[in-house]
Task: inverse folding
């Protein structure tokens, strides 16, 4: 990967920007990029720090694993340095716990903003919070050794980092329930077949494949891509007739813009 000066590099997250492409890298391979509240805050900051020139954001993890999920230290009585343990949070007021989880979720929500297209380049383990972080992105390119798993239920928990919505829409309710309830691994072939992965490549080609996809996404005019993404994401919840109206309105905006008649 081209060496760039980072916009920031802290708490296991590095953000670099090369013109219209930003790269967010998880940088703790010694712990298989296990996640923590500090890492989630850094991911949220990465989204807020993106320059307006950025059109594509590539998410990757250093080392053999994309992210092995939540750092189990979160459940230790001492928690992380300067952080309450999850057990202590559970003993507090319900409203505070809800607000804290909502804050954590912010690290996973900005990837689907209409003004960017996000691409997760996933190798090795993407478990629990790691699986949900990959699901937070618009597109996923995976290495042949990828292992997705939603292990929250085995810990007596539920997936709560925004992963349930995209998982159901990608693979359907029945398969999503089975994946989450059993905690089993989903490997590359199944991921591609069920729509979890857009493309499967050998591990040593993952970085190049992500770069190629980013370049392809930049080939069309930005406003056309933004409008198209909004149309497609809205199609999930709109009835057919409402989608037709949305298509006409979006096309009208594009035609007026091309004719120099934009509002």
Result:
């Amino acid at each position: 990967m081209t060496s760039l000066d980072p916009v920031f590099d802290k708490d296991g997250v590095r953000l670099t920007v090369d013109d219209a492409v930003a790269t967010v890298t998880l940088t703790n391979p010694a712990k298989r990029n296990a996640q923590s509240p500090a890492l989630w805050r850094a991911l949220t900051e990465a989204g807020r720090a993106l320059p307006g020139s950025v059109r594509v954001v590539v998410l990757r993890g250093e080392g053999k694993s994309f992210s092995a999920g939540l750092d189990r230290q979160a459940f230790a009585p001492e928690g992380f340095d300067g952080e309450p343990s999850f057990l202590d949070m559970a003993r507090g007021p319900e409203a505070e716990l809800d607000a804290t989880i909502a804050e954590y979720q912010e690290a996973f929500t900005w990837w689907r903003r209409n003004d960017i297209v996000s691409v997760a380049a996933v190798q090795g383990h993407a478990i629990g919070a790691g699986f949900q972080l990959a699901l937070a992105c618009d597109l996923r390119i995976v290495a042949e050794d990828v292992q997705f798993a939603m292990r929250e239920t085995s810990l007596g928990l539920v997936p709560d980092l925004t992963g349930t919505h995209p998982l159901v829409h990608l693979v359907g309710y029945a398969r999503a329930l089975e994946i989450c309830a059993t905690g089993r691994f989903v490997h590359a072939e199944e991921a591609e077949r069920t729509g979890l992965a857009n493309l499967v490549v050998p591990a040593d080609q993952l970085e190049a494949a992500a770069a190629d996809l980013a370049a392809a996404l930049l080939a069309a005019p930005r406003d056309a891509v933004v409008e198209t993404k909004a149309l497609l994401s809205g199609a999930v919840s709109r009835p057919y007739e409402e989608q037709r109206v949305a298509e006409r309105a979006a096309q009208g905006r594009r035609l007026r813009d091309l004719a120099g008649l934009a509002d």
